[in-house]
Amino acid sequence: LKMSWFWLYLPLHLLMATCLCHSIKAPTTSSQQSFKSNLFNFYHSLILSDGKETTIHLLKDIPKRYYFVLEEGRALAPFSITVTPCDVPIEWSILVYKPPPGKAAPGDHDTQEVSKSHKASSLVSTIFNYKGNSVETYMGMSSHSALYLLEFLSTERDTHITVYLTSDTTSGHLYPELPGDPRIDVIGIGHTTVTLAWKHSPSVLQHSEGIQYCLLVNEKHNYKSLCAAETAIRSSGMKLPPTVALSLSPYLLEPQQVMILSNSELSIINKVSSGEVRQVCMGTKNTYTVPNLSPNTQYYFDVFIVNLLTNASAAYTGTFARTLEEPEPKVTELKDGKVFHVVLDGKKQKFYSLQYQARHKKIHFTFQLCQGQIRVHITRNGKTVASENLSGLRYFSLKGKLLDIYSVQLRSTEESNSSVKVLASPHFHKPLFPLLPESLKIKSFSKLRTCRSVTIAWLGTQEESKYCVYRKRIEEDQIWRELQSADRCSGPESRHKSEKVLCKYFYDLNLQRAVTTETIKGLEAGTLYLFDVYLFGPSGIPVRYHSKVVKTRKKC
């Protein structure tokens, strides 16, 4: 609405407001009284821009008012106002002031005619009011002699909203259009997936290049606007990088890219206190299968149609669905003294269950973590007796009754493959695994490095055991892969014969002196080597020390 002449118009309306207060005798509503009282404060009020989305910040219990008038010279002018709450429900209303019938528009009168308007009756009316957190649009027609007031109020807490006013209703829409049926259909539910479909937006069919769909998934509730979703994610305590202006901005996403928003930082996969929140932008596809969900969990799904040129969006009617329960894992019986090797595929099979019936009152469980990350949960007759993340070699000594049923559930905590060896036995004094030192780290001595040799050391135990040393030449870009993919349960049988350096026996009753060193010679200058030490117990089951990478000196 063109406001170039509006400031000349204000003094006249101040006089009209005075007339209004004296001329209307009938009881008025509180909104109308508020409108009249605020007509005296034009110079402290705000003008609402035409054709532009405006962000308005509201303080709790403090109303905020915006004014606008219609374009001069038009008898009737269409206009629309769209208000989008970005958090809590708000109250908002539109009031209109019109001069008495038969009077010319203010601003076309001389001083004498203005004075007559003091005695004339005027009209203030509420033409629209709303309370809630949905996106609402008001469309109306009015003459240029009308003056409008928009009043906004938040009674719950400080918040912000966006308001879009336009008098040009013929040259397209800021917001993408929703189809006649804006519902999201759930067309498939699995244990870890939900498949969704929705009807195409008319905007996609007309302007497919600048429009795309974005899906928001969370475990809390549906959101009625993208603005509300962004506010909720920010309020969870997450920290956004400075370059991320909007947490859900489609400009920052490639098609099919998933963003998980945590309560600490923005990352690819993480969780907030209220569960996962993720967004997927999939271009103009109107079907999508959401992967990697948790079984037996209720999720809420919202689809937004986003205009990439204006960043304006419209929300489909959200839906929800509960994933299917995880099928009961197959239970494997553990036998006394027999080592059972469990391999978990982090993507397909994350759980594995073992069962053991006690034939003695005291039972010992041994877990040797071979690869990845695994959490163990042990119950006795349905009651939890141990639960923790495994690391290296771990023993649990449990005391119960004869014929107690122990259940062991192993769960992979990462998407890569994980594996563990499990042993249940009543005889702890005859362990199949070797006695371990305090640390399984291998130490190298920088000062003893030469161009052709490296000196390493490791801890031993009070029990005489066999130790075998292996070396392997590697490149810089292989270090991370070698260290991460190392199977700590595999023995020297998986190594090439040429990698073997030596085997030796040693022990010391004084643990402080149970340390051995070896100088490995015949190496090449300036070369990276991966060193491994294997410890063998009485049963011959090996334990692998943590691999050590050392580089020989280039020049000596």
Summarize this, please?
The protein is built from 6 helices and 36 strands.
What does this structure look like?
There is one protein chain. This protein is mainly β and 556 residues long. The chain folds into four domains: 43-99 and 123-166, Sandwich (Jelly Rolls), CATH 2.60.120.510; 175-238 and 275-327, Immunoglobulin-like (Sandwich), CATH 2.60.40.10; 336-425, GOLD domain (Jelly Rolls); 442-551, Immunoglobulin-like (Sandwich). Helix content is 10%, strand content 40%. The protein contains six helices and 36 strands. The strands form eight sheets. Strands 12, 13, 14, 15, 17, 18 and 19 form a seven-stranded antiparallel beta sheet that branches. The protein has a five-stranded mixed beta sheet with strand order 1-3-8-5-6, with helices on one face. The protein has a five-stranded mixed beta sheet with strand order 20-22-27-24-25, with no helix packed on it. A hairpin with a 4-residue loop joins β13 (258-261) and β14 (266-267). The model is unreliable at 1-29, 34-44, 104-121 and 238-273 (pLDDT under 50).
